[in-house]
Amino acid sequence: MTKAELPEWERYPNTGRFLLGRRRSLLSTAEKQRLEALPSDVRTLADGEVLIRRGEVLDCSAMLVDGFMIRTIWHNNERSIVSLQVPGDFVDLHGYALKRLDHDLVALGTARVAVVPHRKIDEVLATDPKLGRLLWFSTLLDAAIHREWICKLEQLQAAQRVAHIFAELWHRLEMVGLGEPGVVRTPLTQANLAEMCGVTPIHMNRSLGQLRRAGIAVFRRGSLYVEDRARLEQFGDFVSAYLYGEDGLGTLEGVLD
Amino acid sequence: MTKAELPEWERYPNTGRFLLGRRRSLLSTAEKQRLEALPSDVRTLADGEVLIRRGEVLDCSAMLVDGFMIRTIWHNNERSIVSLQVPGDFVDLHGYALKRLDHDLVALGTARVAVVPHRKIDEVLATDPKLGRLLWFSTLLDAAIHREWICKLEQLQAAQRVAHIFAELWHRLEMVGLGEPGVVRTPLTQANLAEMCGVTPIHMNRSLGQLRRAGIAVFRRGSLYVEDRARLEQFGDFVSAYLYGEDGLGTLEGVLD
DNA sequence: CGCATCCTTGAGGGCCATCAAAATGCGTGG
DNA sequence: CCACGCATTTTGATGGCCCTCAAGGATGCG
Question: Is residue A248 part of a domain?
Answer without folding.
Answer: no
